[in-house]
Structure formats: structure tokens, C-alpha cells
Amino acid sequence: MRYMLLAYLMNVRLFVAVEITEEIQKRLSAFQNALKKAGADVSWVAPENLHITLKFIGALDEEKIESVTAIIKEAMAHIKPFDLHYRGVGTFPTEKKPRVVFADVIDERGVLAQIHERLGNQFVALGVEHENRKFSAHLTVGRIKTLRNVRRLAEKLDSYHEFDFGSEHVTQVALMKSDLLPDGPVYTKLQSIELD
Which residues are catalytic? Predict the structure, then answer.
């Protein structure tokens, strides 16, 4: 039993992400504050936790972090820095039954999808499942818990249909650790991997 507990404590939840700038965080925070006025039942993502998930790795033994970093570096080979634009908003999976509120990510060169595919292929070696669903770059800003006031929320979202939250020049990706706490997840950056 003690051995099992120690083994469990050694596991860390990992994911690969693109971090966003403080300026864009501020604009998205203001957007969240405007939506909160709808009184909908939404769990809002803390501004400092906003990011683009490139690959969710899941729980792995802490000892594998070096291997994970090596895989990310290999996947990033020959990928040059690129620009992203954050413009427009929406909900997943549908407008009638929304579960996620997101800000749209415009990646004109399709670099994020390319990185996602490379990471998926590489992480199979560590036993991480390859996702079959199509990658969709977005910034999750809130998770809808019930349908309370969801129509009012949709009306507020409409006014941000083509809203421009800004742009950033991406020069690195990050290996992140996720700790699930009662007050919500806490993300810690373990490594920054510079683009070629």
C-alpha cells in the first residue's frame, strides 16, 4: 500500500502549451468580466491560466520529464517562430448546448496543427494515446456548468463576434505541470522549448 501511494505521488499531469502575453490576458479578462454580467453558471478560467493546449500528455512518472522534454525538442525541430492572432469568440460543441466558451486563434500558417500532429506521433513512444479528432486551436475562457441564463450569455457573446484581442509572436512552447486543487487547477511551467 505504501509503495502504491509513493508511486502515485511521483506521477505528474503534463501538457504542452503556447503561453499568451499579459496584454492579451488582460483583454480576455475584461471579456470574461463583461460575460459575467449575464449571470450564467460558468466556471471561468483564471487569466494567468489562459493558454493554447498543443498536447495533453496526462499523468506520467516524474522521472520521464527529461524524455518528455527531449520529445518536444525533437518535434520542434525546423519550426520557426510564427504569429498568432486572437480574434472572435464562440462556444463548443454547439450554440444551443454550449459547454465551453472560447476565444478564437487565427494561425494562418497552420503551425499549431503541425506541432500538435508531431507531438501526437512522438508521444506514442511513451504510451500516450494519439488523438484522432481534428485539432482546433482555441483559448478556453470558461466552462458552462448548467444552462442557466445561457441565452443572455449568447447575446453578450454576439457583441464580441469579431472582437480583436491582439496578436503575438510565438518563439517558444512550454511543458506545463497541472495540479488539480479544490479552488481550481494550478499550472507550473517546467520547461521552455525555443523554436528553431
Answer: 51, 138
